[in-house]
Amino acid sequence: MKARIVTLPGDGIGPEVTAAAVAVLNAVAAHYEHAFAVEEHPIGGIAIDTTGEPLPATTLAACQSADAVLLGAVGGPKWSDPAAKVRPEQGLLALRAALGVYANLRPLSVHPALAALSPLKDEKLKDVDVLFVRELTGGAYFGTKTRSADAATDECRYTVAEIERVARRAFALARGRRKHVTSVDKANVLETSRLWRATVMRVAADYPDVTLEHQLVDSMAMLLLTQPARYDVVVTENLFGDILTDEAAALAGSLGLLPSASLGEGNCGLYEPIHGSAPDIAGQGLANPLGAILSAALLLRHSLGLEGEAQAVEAAVAQVVEHGPRTRDLGGTAGTDAVLQAVLTALEDHA
Ligand code: NAI
Ligand code: MG
User: Fold this and answer.
1) What EC designation does it have (predicted)?
2) Domain-by-domain residue ranges, the chain?
3) pLDDT at 298
4) If you take atom 36 of ligand 1, which residue's CA is the nearest one?
């Protein structure tokens, strides 16, 4: 198949891990005889430096006409002056909103070979396989903000339509998995949560083969640590999802190997590792490229419909996680390139 993929390497280790993911996509294209046209554009700090804008119009236009977008990371100390008018993160928020990618997917499983890196005991981590679906373009992050000398407000607003579309996505994904959805809210206190719960229940009626349970967010924060293997698909609103997915990431032991996908109505999705620009190790060839490579696997699956190719990449990564080489964040001594080469070699066995 033919596909146009836009890459937005961004700042810090973003370019290093994105280059590795592109190398894997090129290997997939060569092996399966696909034609992927990969086109690079600036975003974040590098875009501010070169154009004055965190999301230049040319970058946005390229993303809007692409089949998929692969992002590295944005931000860093150079651009973190709180008084600055433009900040790298604005580029990412604006891109998510412009692409309408309202559902943020974060799969989480813990490879047995990495269990020692997790703060949880091995037996708790066995069989952990959760897919978080976080609402990404509504709620408190996008509501009206006010600020006076002695008070501030962040409006949290959700419409039925916003809740319904993300809930449908979660139920549809659960159908391809263990057919269980946990909806997380704070319906005992918040009006938006009561609307959330009522809407999710209504959507659930269209998916009678999927079981729905509700959890309050505070209790969910605890259950994720005590019984993580209990969960299949977890769907929640923007702010709760931001917090719970970072908590879940800590269970995996390292940020370096966790991917994400942000999806909207069309096929075009935004794919990025969950880690940031890691300024402490940027430019040294030490970054773990597996989060970016697994994000490319999600791109193959969700935007291009290439399930076999996605599984081949995931199997190659699992093999490298198990047998090494590993980067320092996973307890090894290897650099980015050695890990990439190992993935490319393993891919030949799995493709
Ligand atoms: P971070 O994720 O960049 O780094 C946290 C720690 O994890 C650091 O010690 C780093 O070296 C390590 N780490 C992260 N990714 C790694 C990888 N692939 N391989 C090996 N080690 C890795 O988070 P931090 O330090 O809070 O933020 C740094 C900058 O990144 C900030 O400017 C922040 O705003 C930005 N950021 C950007 C995100 C994005 O683009 N989506 C997300 C989170 C942070
Ligand atoms: Mg976060």
Assistant:
1) 1.1.1.85
2) 1-102+255-351, 119-251
3) 98
4) 276
pLDDT at residue 83, as a whole number: 85
Examine the residue annotation and report whether 337 is marked as an active-site residue of this protein: no
Q: What is the pLDDT of residue 122?
A: 79
Percent of the chain topping pLDDT 70 = 100
Whether the pLDDT of residue 183 is over 80: the answer is: yes
> Of the listed 122, 127, 246, 349, which one is catalytic?
246
- For residue 153, the CA-to-ligand 2 centroid distance in Å is 20
ipTM: 0.98
Question: 183: which 2 tokens?
Answer: 């909806």
Residue 205 has pLDDT above 90, yes or no: yes
Q: Which fold has domain 1-102+255-351?
A: Isopropylmalate Dehydrogenase (3.40.718)
> What's the rounded Cα separation, in Å, for the pair 90 and 52?
12
Matching CATH topology for 1-102+255-351 and 119-251? yes
Asked if residue 42 belongs to a known ligand binding site, the reply is no
Annotated active-site residue 349? The verdict is no
**Of 6, 78, 85, which is closest to residue 43 (Cα–Cα)?**
6
pLDDT, residue 129, reads 95
Q: What is the DSSP letter of 97?
A: H
- For residue 106, which ligand has an atom nearest its CA? 2
Under 8 Å between Cβ of 327 and 8: no
With bands split at pLDDT 50, 70 and 90, how would you rate the model's confidence at 259?
very high
Domain 119-251, CATH 3.40.718.10 — does that match? yes
249 is in an annotated binding site: no
Pairing of strands 259-263, 269-273: antiparallel
Residue 311 is predicted with a pLDDT of 97
Calpha distance 201→167 (Å, rounded): 9
- Give residue 192 CA to ligand 2 midpoint distance, Å: 21
